[in-house]
Write a structure and sequence with these properties.
By secondary structure, the protein is α/β, with parallel strands linked by helices. The protein has helices at 30-40, 50-56, 58-61, 69-80, 106-115, 125-133; strands at 4-11, 15-18, 43-49, 82-86, 98-101, 119-123, 139-145, 152-154, 163-171, 177-184. The protein has one domain: Dihydrofolate Reductase, subunit A, CATH 3.40.430. It has six helices and ten strands; from the N terminus they run ββαβαααββαβαββββ. An eight-stranded mixed β-sheet has the order 5-4-3-6-1-7-10-9, with helices on both faces. A two-stranded antiparallel sheet has the order 2-8.
């Protein structure tokens, strides 16, 4: 059975984007990026909301991202995986191996987990909150950036309550911290 993993870079005060919608402060350096690449290798499918997907599209459509080997490696991993975008408004997708679903169906995701031979990643706080609320998320991989942004979009929604067990952690030279948690029943 595949794991469903929520992986996100957040500010030290818990935001994925600041009040202006920027996340330039979250860009991983080569050490962090290479570590993330290792974590992404087992992922066979990405689940996204529309906004998160629109950010991630660049990994297939922006040729300037192919300038460094660790960045190109992530692009290759992302392009090789299947992508499912949950959106009521998106009409078409510009990336390969991508399909649109109009609504998040917890039972369909539960079934997907039971038959998948590779792990599944849920991206974006809104969709992740739905998956957490349905008891589908098995692990959280949180990268905490050494910055306080003072507001914006939260990495973890209010109203979501999970008991977590710490499985791993790491401090990077740039001050970023990685925390890997398993969700507990």
């Amino acid at each position: 059975m595949a794991k469903l993993i929520y992986s996100m870079i957040a500010s030290s005060d818990g935001y994925v984007v600041d009040a202006d919608g920027s996340f330039d402060w979250a860009e991983p350096d080569e050490e962090v990026h290479s570590f993330i690449n290792d974590l992404e290798r087992p992922i066979g499918t990405y689940l996204y909301g529309r906004r998160m997907y629109e950010v991630m599209v660049a990994w297939e459509t922006d040729p300037t991202l192919a300038t460094q080997s660790h960045v190109m490696e992530f692009a290759d991993l992302w392009q090789a995986a299947d992508k499912i975008v949950f959106s009521k408004t998106l009409e078409a997708v510009p990336t390969a191996k991508t399909r649109i679903e109009r609504a998040f169906d917890p039972e369909a995701v539960r079934q997907m987990k039971s038959i998948a031979d590779r792990d599944i990643s849920v991206g974006g706080p809104n969709l992740a909150a739905q998956a957490m609320g349905a008891g589908l998320v098995d692990e959280l991989h949180l990268f905490i950036a050494p910055v306080v942004v003072g507001g914006g979009k939260q990495a973890l929604h209010q109203g979501v309550r999970l008991t977590l067990a710490l499985l791993d952690h790491r401090r990077f030279d740039n001050g970023m911290i990685y925390l890997r948690y398993r969700t507990c029943a």
